[in-house]
Predict the 3D structure of the following.
Amino acid sequence: MAQVNRPAAAGSFIDRPPPGVEVVSDGPTDALLTGPYLATVPDRLVDGVVAPGLQEWLTFIERQSLAAASERAAVALTGAPVKWTSKDGSGAATAKGSAVAVSQVFRSLRGLICRDVRQTFDKDSVAHAQTVSLCRTEIASGERIWMVTPPE
C-alpha cells in the first residue's frame, strides 16, 4: 500500500478533513415536507387526492372533506390521525373518518416526494379503508398539492 506524504505545518491549512454533515431524514420537521402547500383542495383536483377505490362510496362533498384531511395528514407526524366529518344541509353527519400518514416521507423512482396515507371512513354503518401513496405535485407556480400517483 502506498504511503501518502502529507505536507508539514502549512499542510494543515490545505489538507483539512471535510466538516461533518447533518442529515435530516424524518420526524415532525422533515426537510422534505417544507415548502408552500394549499390549505384547501381545488374542486377540480379532489378526485386526484382520494383513493380510487373509495371514490364510488362518497359524494363530492364527502370526498372534499377526505381530500382536505389527507392533505393535512401528508405533512403531519407519522401515525397522527386527522379526523374529518361531512355534513348535509341540515347539519347531520353523512360520513366521517380519518386520514393518517403510515410511513415516513420518501422519494419515488420518478423523484417525487411521497408519503403513504391511510384513508378511512364510515358511512351508513359500513367502514371503508385504503392506503394510498400521495406525492407532492406542483399544480401552479409555487402551489403544491399531495396527489395519488400511479404505481411505479
